[in-house]
């Protein structure tokens, strides 16, 4: 039997073969793409150093043997390792921005990113009033950087407990030349943040996966750091701490935007007295909530 790289001549050939391999291996997606075709196209375009948004003109281009070998090796690694594509390429894209990633952080995918590009309007009436933002559980620093882009008059604190995650965040801060506006800070939630600091906006994508769901995670998700995913029995362990402490760090009219993923039922059970605004995005509903400081004090 001929090796794949000797029979797959064009990019179209390689793409068809990659989709077949992915589907045959029952890969799980959700780290930047949600289907085999998009992920295969991304991996191949990345490997060939082609524009990631321009596939059609190159589909019938013949590949050099060394290019075919590189493509086959990467597709094989995705199938055998079950690592998310972002860990194989060392990058992830969110709202059109490139971020450096590795297995020290979860792959950037928070739908909060979409809300930030819209400057959280109408919930923040005047974006120019936002002078200080906190990104709690920052991971790769992607939301902190997007917040700095959205609110150009603000400084942003990118906070995480993990020193490894903060090293990745620092690399992304440098990549986007945000050293003067985004500060990485190691803290156990609010514990090491200066007590007198106040924010007009706190965004947070905390660990919220409940323990039963953690045991059922597909292999792709098991490559991500458990510290950034596991939220205790009902997923609300860190959420409880955040909601208790956040009012101490919010301005009087400050806003908390919190992601809870698919834990809506557990959130409602844990906080029946709260009446948050549920924010919808193109990819998520009942996964992101907004609370004002006054609501958190009741």
Brief overview:
The protein is an alpha/beta fold.
Describe this structure in words.
- The N and C termini lie far apart (70 Å).
- The longest helix has 17 residues.
- The model has no long low-confidence stretch (mean pLDDT 96).
- With 298 residues, the protein is of the alpha/beta class.
- 37% of the residues lie in helices and 16% in strands.
- It has a seven-stranded mixed sheet with strand order 5-4-3-6-7-9-8.
- Helix 8 links the parallel strand 4 and strand 5.
- It contains 13 helices and nine strands.
- The protein has two domains: 84 residues, no CATH class; 206 residues, Rossmann fold.
* Uncertain ranges: none
Strand order of the largest sheet: 5-4-3-6-7-9-8
Beta-strand content bin? 15-25%
The mean pLDDT is: 96
| Radius of gyration of CA atoms, rounded to a whole number | 21 Å
Largest sheet: 7 strands, mixed
CATH superfamily annotation of the largest domain: Vaccinia Virus protein VP39
CATH fold-level name of the largest domain: Rossmann fold
Q: Supply the CATH class of the largest domain.
A: Alpha Beta
SSE string, helix = H, strand = E? HHHHHEEHEHEHEEHHHEHEEH
Overall CATH architecture of the largest domain: 3-Layer(aba) Sandwich
Tally of separate domains: 2
What kind of oligomer do you see?
A: single chain
How many helices? 13
N- to C-terminal distance: 70 Å
What's the helical proportion of residues?
A: 25-40%
How many strands appear in the DSSP assignment? 9
Shape by Cα distribution: elongated
The helix-and-strand class reads: alpha/beta
């Amino acid at each position: 039997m001929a090796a794949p790289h000797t029979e797959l001549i064009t990019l179209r050939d390689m793409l068809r073969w990659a989709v077949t391999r992915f589907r045959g291996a029952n890969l799980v997606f959700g780290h930047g793409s949600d289907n085999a075709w998009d992920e295969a196209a991304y991996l191949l375009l990345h490997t060939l150093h082609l524009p990631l948004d321009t596939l059609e003109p190159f589909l019938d281009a013949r590949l050099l043997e060394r290019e075919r070998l590189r493509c086959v090796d990467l597709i094989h690694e995705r199938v055998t390792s079950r690592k998310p594509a972002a860990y194989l390429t060392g990058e992830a894209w969110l709202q059109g921005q490139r971020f450096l990633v590795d297995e020290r952080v979860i792959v950037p995918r928070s739908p909060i990113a979409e809300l930030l590009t819209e400057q959280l309007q109408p919930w923040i009436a005047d974006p120019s009033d936002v002078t200080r933002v906190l990104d709690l559980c920052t991971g790769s620093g992607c939301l902190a950087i997007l917040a700095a882009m959205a609110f150009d008059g603000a400084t942003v604190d990118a906070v995480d407990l993990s020193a490894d995650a903060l090293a990745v965040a620092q690399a992304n801060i440098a990549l986007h030349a945000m050293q003067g506006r985004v500060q990485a800070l190691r803290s156990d939630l609010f514990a090491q943040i200066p007590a007198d600091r106040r924010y007009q906006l706190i965004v947070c994508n905390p660990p919220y996966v409940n323990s039963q769901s953690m045991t059922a995670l597909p292999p792709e998700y098991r490559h991500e750091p458990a510290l950034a995913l596991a939220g205790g029995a009902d997923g609300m362990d860190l959420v409880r701490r955040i909601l208790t402490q956040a009012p101490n760090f919010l301005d009087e009219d400050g806003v908390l935007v919190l992601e809870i993923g698919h834990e809506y039922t557990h959130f409602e059970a844990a906080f029946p007295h709260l009446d948050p605004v549920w924010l919808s995005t193109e990819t998520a509903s009942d996964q992101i909530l907004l609370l004002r400081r006054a609501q958190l004090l009741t």
